[in-house]
């Protein structure tokens, strides 16, 4: 076994999920994430945690959803009980075909998701962490050779997380102390309110309210969005290529949209529910171990010199106690490059210009 | 997809497990059983059942057990809750190496199993069915080419189960109505009492108290065994080759034994506990789709023209209500060929000669 697989498992169990003896862990394994699952099982065994492995396959989901009449039972009791009794949920992504569910009708997917809100809540109620095992399928999606992709993925995953957390804390402080964010770039001039919001220093650990490995972003839950934004980072959504999505907001809601490619997917997403037309997240990428787009949201949205916005569900961690933010069955991230001709303003002060933060050397105030 | 995979899935869901709309199904998937899992997911979707897939991998079990200190938590709540809320449990065996857990110490395995009694009971409390997907690893164990093994496995699995169940019912009736069975063959003359016992018509369906696919045997729980038996079907037991085991019984208990190969394994088994020296099962193979031994008990013991006896634990289904049969920590099946120079007598009447039953054409009374 590649020693980096063992290091990945150790970071996941130790830094990210903080697993302790006696805890009940659900390990969700993708079909090609087997090797990482073996390494994680070893970590869990050595810590005396209790392991149950589930199998997460796009091909199984596709077969099930296409055959079902669409009248899904709400929150099946066996799956709900499993998650309600779990302390930790570790998702090891890694399929054999990133388009495995491409021909599942959108309404079928939506009906399935809508029937599973309590299950989703129960999973989000655990100390959950999502990561991926670098597979040939992900390498292909990234237009990279397999070993090249492994190097890329482990550069992103095996960071000095403690030191990155300290760097990101500076941006979190700026956001926590202010009321409004403005993003200006080519095709973008967007204003969002962040009064009373708390930014998350997403340092790839549940100890930081951060649930992705790799991570490396600072995010918050915006409100009252006004203006236009263009997402120029190409990506695949629900099996479809999506390019240059443009959204126009008024009073927090999408009032117009378009795309050079994949407009139908955006339309499907916006139609999910009322919350799908509002933003649930503003995220600022700060992981400079990620040096290119690979059409994988887990990596792309964390990349330095990018900003992303998500349609749909907001994270509770960003909201005042007892207040619930935007609610939706979806959470779909879209990304824009801010390395050129861009600026990010917080309460009128430019804090990032062309990708460089004001607390970094080379910042051009 | 090979059409036989779909047929296998349909038989499993429909005939074997009798899955209905709204039922909660746990689908346990071996690493190389993916294709069958996809076909089963389609069947479950079309029936409106609720699917949760778990991942069953010898390599994960090995890594976990070898890393653990051996002081296992009893019945982890998340796994217990999953099974207690399941209606159906479908196990799709199919690993990449039948020796994947060969270097896990026996005491570690036993400590793990002992800590999971309630989980096991909960699983046995569902409508559970075990089957296997024909894999390269199983083909190798059977000394067969892959496609040759697929043909073999589907011949065994894709029977006309309804018609076989009717045929087997005739043997069940004969056994239920009588007191004594005598088996005579080369190296064998054995008498067993079956007063008050109920035979199981094991027709690969929970509707028949039968939990294996393939199945195709009629079995009961014998007592008061007298005489000698020779098991001439070669097999691997606990990783050791075993050939021509001979057991001599007096008043139901093994009083002498020998073997051409693997005598030490037989000795180990007999020493387990008191119940290990008594028979827990007499089974009569009636699946003529199985035409050769493949060193896999799921198939071998069901083969037509064979009889098997198990040392150890008896099944409750064969016993009068409230009576408990032979108890033991083991249940080890041993098989004898009855295709030649053999006869099976029930209360003094020959019911099978050289593999042919008296209710079949060609029977030589």
Helix and strand arrangement:
The structure is a homodimer of 365-residue chains.
Chain A (H helix, E strand, L loop, with lengths): L2 H14 L7 E6 L4 H14 L2 E6 L2 H10 L9 H8 L3 E6 L12 H9 L2 H8 L2 E6 L3 H6 L4 H12 L3 H16 L3 E6 L2 E6 L6 E3 L9 E2 L3 E4 L2 E9 L3 E3 L2 E3 L2 E6 L2 E6 L4 H8 L8 E7 L11 H4 L5 E7 L18 E7 L5 E4 L2 E5 L2 E2 L8
Parallel strand pairs in A: 1-2, 1-3, 3-4, 4-8
Antiparallel strand pairs in A: 5-6, 5-18, 6-10, 7-9, 9-15, 10-13, 11-12, 13-14, 15-16, 16-17, 18-19, 19-20
Helix pairs in contact in A: 1-2, 4-6
Characterize the structure shown.
Two copies of one chain form a homodimer. Chain A has eleven helices and 20 strands. Chain A is α+β, with helices and mostly antiparallel strands. Chain A folds into two domains: 3-157, Thermophilic metalloprotease-like; 162-357, no CATH class. In chain A, strands 14-13-10-6-5-18-19-20 form an eight-stranded antiparallel beta sheet, with helices on one face. In chain A, strands 2-1-3-4-8 form a five-stranded parallel beta sheet, with helices on one face. The model of chain A has no long low-confidence stretch (mean pLDDT 96). The interface between A and B is large, with 48 and 48 residues.
